[in-house]
Amino acid sequence: MAIDPTRRHVLILSFALCAAACRRTEPDLSVYTEEEPPHLSSAIRTADPHAASQLVSGWHQVEDNAWRWTARSFSAVLRPPPGSGKFGAILTLHLTVPDVVIARLGSTTLSASVAGLRLAPETYAHSGVARYVREIPPSILSGDSVRVDFALDRAIPPKSIDARDSRELGVIVGGLDLQTK
């Protein structure tokens, strides 16, 4: 059975259109954007995965979805809050001094520096919830970020509580923040 030329052209054109429609093309990604880098915050909850990039050094993994142990020295980067470049700010570290720290060390002293400015130390001789609160002058809060370096005078050495735990243990921190005065 012969196919007339008009039907043949329609059939060939149909196959060509089907082949073109079935061909894979690169997806149009113009409607998508690159993920923006994380924005610095002036308040950090140490268990928040979005804040992890601001915890620069000396921080252990999140525990109980709420807090982190620190090492003897630990650092974070914060965004100065609005107005702090004019009025100054209050730095607050929300910490817990565990029973085991007091039992093994007797006490521990925490000191800090912000952008190189040394802040007064504080000694913790009792276990429990505590806060380290210091005023920060406006002169060092004019930039987009400020680094806060903390140091304990002593910490529990690795493997001294549990032979499998290779972490140096300082204090437990739930968060830290800068608030405009």
How would you characterize the overall build of this protein?
Helix content is 16%, strand content 40%. It is built from three helices and nine strands, in the order H-E-E-E-H-E-H-E-E-E-E-E. It has helices at residues 5-22, 84-87, 99-105; strands at residues 43-45, 55-63, 67-78, 89-97, 108-114, 117-124, 128-136, 146-152, 172-180. The longest helix has 18 residues, at 5-22.
Distance from N terminus to C terminus (CA atoms, Å) equals 94 Å
Name of the top-level CATH class: Mainly Beta
Order of helices and strands: HEEEHEHEEEEE
Q: Tell me the domain tally.
A: 1
Continuous helix count: 3
What is the strand and helix layout of this fold?
Layout: H1 5-22, E1 43-45, E2 55-63, E3 67-78, H2 84-87, E4 89-97, H3 99-105, E5 108-114, E6 117-124, E7 128-136, E8 146-152, E9 172-180
Antiparallel strand pairs: 1-9, 2-3, 3-8, 3-9, 4-7, 4-9, 5-6, 5-8
Q: Concise description?
A:
This protein has 181 residues and is α+β, with helices and mostly antiparallel strands.
Features:
alpha+beta; 9 strands; 181 residues; Jelly Rolls; flat; 9-stranded antiparallel beta sheet; 16% helix; 3 helices
